[in-house]
Design goal:
The chain is α/β, with parallel strands linked by helices. The chain has four domains: about 130 residues, Methylthiotransferase, N-terminal domain (Rossmann fold, 3-Layer(aba) Sandwich), CATH 3.40.50; about 130 residues, Transcription Regulator spoIIAA; about 90 residues, Transcription Regulator spoIIAA (2-Layer Sandwich), CATH 3.30.750; about 55 residues, OB fold (Dihydrolipoamide Acetyltransferase, E2P) (Beta Barrel). Helix content is about 35%, strand content about 20%. It is built from 14 helices and 19 strands. Helix 10 packs parallel to helix 12 and helix 13 runs parallel beside helix 14. The protein binds S-adenosyl-L-homocysteine, iron/sulfur cluster (SF4) and FE3-S4 cluster. S-adenosyl-L-homocysteine binds next to strand 13.
Amino acid sequence: MDKRFYLETFGCQMNVVDSERIVDLLHQIGYRQIDKPDAADLILLNTCSVRDKAERKVRGHLGRFKPIKDKRPELIIGVGGCVAQQEGEAFFESVPYLDLIFGTHNIHKLPELVLDLEKQRVKRHAVEFLDRETRLQLFPKRVEGESVARYVTVMQGCDNFCSYCVVPHVRGREVSRPSSDIVLEVTELVTAGVREVTLIGQNVNSYGTKEAGEISFADLLRQIHQVEGLERIRFTTSHPKDLSNELIDCFGELPKLCKSLQLPVQSGSDRILHLMNRGYSQQQYLQKVERLKSVCPDIRLTTDLIVGFPGETENDFLQTLAVVEQVKFADAYTFLYSPRPGTAATELEDETPAELKQEWFDRLLEVQGRISLDCWKADIGQIVPILVEGESRRGDGQLFGRSTWNRIVNFAGPKSLIGRIVPIRITGSFKNSQVGELVEAPTGDLPQASCQ
Ligand code: SAH
Ligand code: SF4
Ligand code: F3S
């Protein structure tokens, strides 16, 4: 029998990787993925609860499936990921037409749960956190599939408990995968045609620190750097307090390490950073930025910023603005503070009017918008090495790839360039991408040097 599933993925890279695993597991029990929900036998949402808006989006999307379920009661609707973990079994009460809830540690149970549901329509859920040993055995591993750039999970969970953040509550404690497994996976990926890996985890900088005898994250980068045929390495996300000098120096040492780093600052005010439980001051953050720029002068930094944290004053906000002006981030993801269930910041008094928070937010967006535009416009006319990843998502027959700074560049060229690093003259910069033209069609082998 031909069984069809439809999957929607929200949130960060963790969910993207988890969804790859979901697809693989469902294939194993005879399901085929389709790209519209109407004809599906199984609809799954892999969800994010980092901000209230993300959670509301999930609930909104679920609402769209209700009419399909009304027409076809045999349809199975399931929710996984961080909202599922946060809500647990209670999710059945707020969304009565749900059949299945699976938490962030329970993806491996999906086949069993779905097969049970096929036999007997009794609501199922699995949301318990697993112990360390079991999690280590279940670490997401490479799934077959052709691509030029891949994510590789190096650690999971977070022990930082920033006071606003739900992630440690929905993803559990930190565990790091053995370095030998990671290097092996990267080697296999490269043999299969992958040219770029992004090492992912909630806080990759603390990689290995909780495992006896494990190497540091900087040493892991050095080992991966030796994999022959690999062109580029990226990693995300970094916590500033755990960004060691040894790791910073890798940006000057390892040519395959791309010259871009996401380093969330969240706030420029020491008072707010303390209330956020971030573990660094404005000055300590700026010192790390200085060192990064001195070992790698053309590195581009991006960041996350939260506006309107409980108790934030105009003076605190001005400190954030000052950091933004000083660092000149290539991009910043700016969020209005959103209270999350079970987090410490919900206990803090928050008397700042919503309109004032919005005004700060708009000001920050405007300042950062100008800085970003200046940064990306400076590339116009420059020749930039681009690793070609595939056909443009715009569907216009063009190709797309990325610069070392992680920006998508669209250009016209033959498909045979996919997987190669080619020189592109940048001709235009938009908000999230650039366009360019091929300078010369390369011949021969892949160039060895990468992020230069
Ligand atoms: N692990 C990553 C990011 C986690 S969530 C890290 O530590 O960098 C991504 C971003 O969402 C955070 O950096 C923060 O800026 C934002 N965020 C998290 N919780 C939030 C909340 N409650 N309200 C507003 N923004 C939040
Ligand atoms: Fe959340 Fe902080 Fe952990 Fe990032 S480091 S996931 S912001 S608790
Ligand atoms: Fe969202 Fe969960 Fe990632 S809350 S940001 S999908 S870890």
